[in-house]
Structure formats: structure tokens, C-alpha cells
Amino acid sequence: MPAFAESAAEPPLADSYRALLRLGGNDDGGRQDERARTKVTPPPQDDEVIITTTQPVSECELPLIDVGCLTAAAGGAEERAACVAAIATAAAEWGFFQVVNHGVRQELLEEMRREQTRLFRLPFEAKASAGLLNDSYRWGTPTATSLRQLSWSEAFHLPLAGISGKGCNNSDLTTLRDVTREVAEEMSRLAKTLTRVLAERLLGPGAAGDGFPDGCDDTTCFLRLNRYPPCPFSSAAADAADFGLVPHTDSDFLTVLCQDHVGGLQLMKGSSWVAVRPIPGALIVNIGDLFQAWSNNRYKSVEHKVMTNATTERYSVAFFLCPSYDSPIGTCREPSPYRAFTFGEYRRRVQEDVKKTGKKIGLRNFLV
């Protein structure tokens, strides 16, 4: 790896903020943001931190489900049926739930966090230009045309098959590579178990098969290592860049998330944003767009976002269960509210919409 000893680790997010601020920043057509606004605050200087003041967001208690009877092959039929019913209810009513006894070892997740922290503390030039982890480093939002579209974060977005590839064979990253591979394998096992039981809830026992959903393997699924740096910009500003990750839904079947103790994840419940309180040892699971389409809207892909913290960095690891681009998404039963489409077609349409409008339209494009 090239030497970058004197380089700063932080990505130039503040430069992106200032550039977008000069462009006018806001693309909301003059609509008021959901937060309380007091005045437009100029961006702080490097040595200045502005204390944020926003309307309080209520904290939610996501459904917490013990899935040990699914992941450890323990428990009787009655216990399993109750667990599956709780998962299906949460997927339909919340689109999100938390799981314990999930089979992803806690000591492995703790080792992942240590390696992840070491990775993100590398100089920015090393992360951005040294081809680390198959050149999978991303930061900010390259397509942003306003502050409302800027994600204050950095990440490595790794296809599972790439974790063992040549691009991950750097001697300085051997431990990280091995830990990442183990985390991906255990999260993948959990995700496939959950999608299978959710499908069987609609189709009947055994109807989904061990391979559901079709086309999801190491070449199509992803593991994303996230870091959300402290953000000194005030959310009292009308164009505040306080999104660690902008509001969105996930374009996959299912997402499994391990977040740290800092918090910041919020989801839309009804017409209000609610904050998700971190629970030690629990993983967060959410339904993606493809599962909502396949289930004929029975399971909900819910909009969510990550808010920045003014003083504390936040880490998370997310696994995305994705099919191949040529995989038809299908439906649990006809008639479906959606026309037939493949994952590749869905991804292309999302990218086109974001490029044209700055926003993801998603499933509405595929309604019959």
C-alpha cells in the first residue's frame, strides 16, 4: 500500500457542503422541512462547531423477536409458528424489526467493528485511490445537486464474491478481509432464513424452497461497511446537511444491519419519523422494495434515513440480499399490482430517476 502518512483521514465532505451551498442548496420547491427552522446559518469555519437544535423525534420500540428457534434448529413446531407469525406481523406493520439469538456471533461483530474502525482511519487518499477492497470506497453523494441530497458518510460497498478476490489480498488488510468474509456468511445465512419463512407465511409451509429468493448468491449480494463522521453544520440552517444517509428505501429483498450504540437511524411510521433505539446484541432487519413487490404489498419497504451527530462518529455494517440483474422478481400470487420486471430493470430505472430528478421513485414506476 502506498504511504500516505501525512494525509488526513476524513473525506472532503465539508467541501461538498460549501459547493452545494453556493449552488443554492435546497431543491424542495420552497416547502418547509419537517424540522423546526429558525434562520439560515452560514457554514462554520474549521474551528467552529454549531450546536444543533431540532424538533425532538420520538423514539420507537421496534418489534424485538427471538429467532433462535429458526437459526439454531431448536424449539418445537408451536414455538416456530409463533416466531414466524411475529416476523410476518412486524414486516407488514413496520417493515422493520430487531432480532436476537440470530446466529451472528457477538465476538465476530466486535472484531468487525475494530477492523472497520482501523480501515476508516486510513488516510483519505489511501481509501479513495489505493484500490482498497476492490476499489469499493464511496463517500458523500456524487450526484447531489442540493444539500438535501448530500449524505454525510463514507462506506466500502463490497460484493460478497469480491471479498476473497485479488483486490482484497493486500497484506495490511488480511485480518479485515477474513473477518468481513465471516460476517457476510453469517448475515447471509440469517437473511436467507428470514426471507424463506416470510415467503412460506404467504405460500404455505415448504412452498418457497431453500433457494428463495432465486438468484441471490455471493456474486449478487453486498456487504456495506459504513462510517458517519461527526457533522458540525447546524440543522437550524434551512439547507442543513444533517443527513448521514438521505431518506430512501432499500432496492433489495432484505437488509440485515448491525449498528453501534450511537444511534441516528430513523424510519417513517405513519406520517412521522421515529428514531430507533440501539439494543446491544440485536440486529435490525428491514424489508426491501423487491420483497414488497413480490408480496403484493403485504410486506412493507419503509423509508428510512440516518441523522448525523455533531460530535460523535457512528459505524454500522449492512448486508443486502440482492438477486442477479436478470432475475425476474415475480409475485406470491396473481393478480399482482406490479407488472413483471427484473432486478436489472429496476436498478436502471432507479438510477435514471435519481439522475433526472434527484429522487428515487421506485416501485411506483412498475404499477400495473
The gyration radius over C-alpha positions equals 21 Å
- What is the overall pLDDT average? 86
Straight-line N-to-C gap: 52 Å
Number of domains: 1
Query: CATH first level: which class?
Result: Mainly Beta
Quaternary state of this entry equals single chain
- The largest sheet has its strands arranged as 2-3-11-8-13-6-5-4
**Looking at CATH, which topology would you report?**
Jelly Rolls
Q: SSE string, helix = H, strand = E?
A: HEEHHEHHHEEHEEEEEEHEEH
Largest sheet: 8 strands, mixed
Number of strands: 13
Provide the structure class.
alpha+beta
Low-confidence stretches: 1-6, 27-54
CATH architecture: Sandwich
Fraction of residues in helices? Answer: 25-40%
CATH superfamily: B-lactam Antibiotic, Isopenicillin N Synthase, Chain
Mind explaining what this structure looks like?
With 368 residues, this protein is α+β, with helices and mostly antiparallel strands. It has a single domain, classed as Jelly Rolls (Sandwich), CATH 2.60.120. Helices cover 29% and strands 18% of the residues. It has an 8-stranded mixed sheet with strand order 2-3-11-8-13-6-5-4. Strands 1-10-9-12-7 form a 5-stranded mixed sheet, with no helix packed on it. A hairpin with a 2-residue loop joins strand 9 and strand 10 (272-276). Helix 3 (77-93) packs across helix 7 and helix 4 (106-120) packs across helix 7 (174-203). The radius of gyration is 21 Å and the shape is globular.
